[in-house]
Amino acid sequence: MLSDLKNRGYARVTLGVEPTETENLKIYQHLGFHTFIKSARETYPDGTVIDVDYYAKDC
Questions:
Q1: CA 6 centroid distance within chain
Q2: Which of 11, 26, 48, 57 has the most C-beta neighbours closer than 10 Å?
Q3: Cα–Cα distance between 4 and 13 in angstroms, integer?
Q4: Domain boundaries, position 22
C-alpha cells in the first residue's frame, strides 16, 4: 500500500487510533507511524462518539 501511494505521488500517509487502544498504537509505532498530527473527536454513523489520535509516516 505504501509503495502504491508513493508511486501515485503521495509523500505521507496517516492513520487514526483510539488512545485507549495501546496495543494497536504499539503496532503502528513499530510500523513507523511516529509523527503525531492531532487529537479529535469522531462520530460513527450510529452516533457513537470516540476520541482519535492521528499519526503520520512518510511513504
A1: 17
A2: 57
A3: 11
A4: 2-58
